[in-house]
Sequence to fold (665 residues):
Amino acid sequence: MLFNKQTFSYSDLSNAIRFLSIDAVEKAKSGHPGMPMGMADIATILFTKFLKFNPTDPAWLNRDRFILSNGHGSMLLYSLLYLTGYDLTLEDLKNFKQLHSKTPGHPEFGHTVGVETTTGPLGQGIANAIGMSIAAKQMQAKHSEDLFNHKIYCFLGDGCLMEGISHEACSLAGHLQLNNLIVIFDDNEISIDGETLLSTSDNVKLRFQSYGWEYFNIDGHDYQQIEEALEQAQNINKPVLIAAKTKIGFGSPNKEGSAKAHGSPLGKEEIKLVREKLGWPHKEFEIPDNILKAWRKAGTKNLTEYKFWKDEFAKLANHKKLEIERIYNKELPNDLTNIFAELKREFTTRQTNEATRKSSGRVIEKIVDYLPELFGGSADLSESNNTLSSKHQIFNHNNYSGNYLHYGVREHAMASIMNGMSAYGTHIPYAGTFLIFSDYMRPSIRLAALMQVKVIYILTHDSIGLGGDGPTHQPVEHLAALRAIPNLLVLRPMDSVEVAECWQIALEYQGPSILALSRQNLTFLRTEFNEQNLCKKGAYEIIQEDNPQVTIFATGSEVEIAVKAAQLLQEKHITTRVLSMPSKELFLKQDSSYITQFLCNNSIKVAVEAGINLGWHEIIGPHGIFVGMHSFGASAPEDELYKYFNITAAQIVQQVITKLEKKHD
Fold:
């Protein structure tokens, strides 16, 4: 037993969670008390008897991860963190949902110590947990079971299981036989609208058994059943789902088992009744010393194992130890800059016209050996995305040391799994699909940007240039939509050299990045080697003019069109400057003198991009010229499409001349 000569019961420990949660929600006049009340018994057994953690070293590599996928019940997690001794105070709990508090309405990664990932949109947490499970399995296979032998625990609710992302992610977890994953389903049969029978009648057991999971059904308020199920789950050779029948709002005489306990404070009168029913005579936010001491003791239960782990880690060969520390400290290898310089020199020597997706594949081939933390994948498009190199090993249940995962046609889960891998702390995940399918990934991309985790999305077939697949596959609004997400870098390179530079930027950036890459071959334009990474400025001159009459900004596949237009304008004695703009975000982060030299002059501003014009007026102003898309695409060969939609050098020239004539009238 963890506790000797107990002066309390497990129900006392559970009630500490319940009443901290109830009181915080009531004080905030907002929140979800029902889930913490219903899951408190399970959380008590998990944290006091099974979960491996150390509040004095929250970043311990071999800690178990605990993910609260039904993040609306965040006070459950905050109460546990406070009770077990993390850097969270009673005052923090009293400030639940208040500005700048450590206890926001949903758990936020990097904001509150002990929170492993940001959960809010339902289903994201379980997919993140599966990403962490994959990362943990690979670290164990690559290093040793003594150093990496932890579990990934996840609480989820009915809403998580209704969201489609849970199907994608859990199907993949079963396929991979992730036996370090234990998920506990808060099976309370209540959603905000009422009973879950209003909207679902799934057989959860058959669903998860069909995925290849182990399934247990328990009473979520029976401590013995909870403990036995968790004990059995420790050594099962597949992922485990424990469906726990619970009562939402447990202990509330008038709201237990109903939607009334879901998303609103119980109210002062009801809270008095709960205190009476559960035998909790203590004041708001008051935890008796013996109960708090018991919880704090639970927070120290893994210190012996922690010290053993530290000793084992210290015995590692120095180069292995330094590598793990480098990766976990988010540092890149010292020689990576030289590797990219070599790549650029090779590309400049070759000067090959090729699709930027193919150039990206060449970069991956070069850097895989230098970055053991790099973990690749694709949503069933490895050959099209050029994400799989000859040096990769496939990650599967026969080879957990692999560094490339076939996600299958699961874009939404893929993006969320990558978030989990990155938040785990030892991986830089990248994966590919077509840019159009970023629509399926967008919720996870947004959360990656919110968490500022390093994830790299290889999004190919980035314009009407993909040709005959037509408007269902031709992204016209996607670049603008993705640029609207704060903290997200959208990188659209024009040739091989820019691809290398954009890859380097993505690896160095502490946040998510998108490489938007072409299907079609593009003209090689960076013909002179330059060791400097010009793309880091976001935009730079590829045709220089000191006092231009025209300044053209272009991205990706349209830069070569801008260059042709400039040549035609120069023939007409119209001085023209051309800037390649691989990243609008990076350009607008430069110092004002760099930006104003291109934007604050009398030249006619032109933007060229095979997408919609949303956001471009920030660059070209209200009177600038935009040459791009104003509708959906069409099915035809790429050359015909560019002519049909008037994204041509001739169109640029015509509009510039018309503008100049009006200017001189």
